[in-house]
Amino acid sequence: MWDFSTDAEFQHKLDWARTFVREEVEPLEVLFPGCEFQPLDDVRRKVIDPLKQQVRDHGLWACHLGPELGGQGYGPLKLALLNEILGRTYWASLVFGTQAPDTGNAEILARFGTQEQKDRYLTPLLAGELFSCFSMTELQGGADPGVFTTRAVRDGDEWVITGRKYFSSNASTASFFIVMAVTDPDVPVHRGCSMFLVPAGTPGLVLETNHRVFGAPTRDAGHALLRYDDVRVPADAMLGEPGTGFAVAQARLAGGRLHHAMRTIGQCQRALDMMCERALSRRTKGSRLADLQLVQDAIAQSYTELLQFRLTVLYASWKVEEHGEDAARVEIGVVKTLAPKVLGDIARRSLHLHGALGTTDQLPLAGMLMSAEALGLADGPSEVHRLNLARAVLKDHQGTDGEWPTEFLGTRLATAYRKYPELVDAPGMLPEGVPFPPLS
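and the corresponding structure tokens:
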């Protein structure tokens, strides 16, 4: 049970993490820009390995995984409270062993992988010694698996994969790939796709080009267009059972959407902190920005939106923890659509308050705006999630066959008089001019 308080032991860990991220991890942004998903060289290793060890010493390494995998086995609620701290900087997820997409890939390896697959891929991934790539989206179909064309055909003891995948994040530095391919084109996509593990360097795996989000440093690992040109993998490279690729993907995506929202809280808080600092530091026309009503309104709006968003994320996390992901699909959809909007609104206000400086690469605010746009597309566009959310909400409602809405005064009076018929003829009980449905 979580009742807006946190047990003292875990709160102590959160307090340590908050200070540690601000003082020890955030400096990595300016020391090693764009290197979050680059293999560690000797210089970075001397700085980052000791930070990772501190995280392990405090029992906060890879907390999303169970103790048998080196984590703490925290449920969604504790992860939400921790991830909102880690979300302040991309480096924090690396230092705490919770970086995407490796977290989701580790979860499906742990859940669907064979022991041999876990030994080969999961163990070094959890140690933070390599990166992985989730290769699902296709150039011609975006996030719609119904139009995927990448095929995998059985040939003896091997599978042969042919096709192209786009926006395969971190492909340039990944040691292995988790690829979705159509294995049975004669059935619906949710029963006709399978997942495969493909090691980097496998013959036929070609990185055609690598794109980066606008404004990203040139050292950023990027998002690749990959060509699978008759890539051969052994039969035991399949992750899960044949035809379960869609289910495997959904197993990582639902949790991933919630984790994105958790980390977005940290970004929003950072933008709000910057806004408040600017308002209290900058003076114009004889007064501080903080004394101007429009600035106060922007700060109040931002704080209110962040508080609402944070409570919604915590509620969704609690519901997943208590009742499972299926029971919380609506709430997960809500936080998925809220995250880009709230971050975009708060970052935009903060950027405006910083004037021209806010638009430059000397502050993280323009990057936050781009992150907000990316959040609106990651794991499915917000528009699609809103459609699904609306359908889910409508399932709990029904229309009326009557001429008037059920909340119409005349309709409500008819219902009330059926319950209290002795009042029908009472003087002054029936308002004039109200269409009154018959009581029978």
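(Above: one complete record from the training split.) The CA atoms of residues 52 and 95 lie 5 Å apart.
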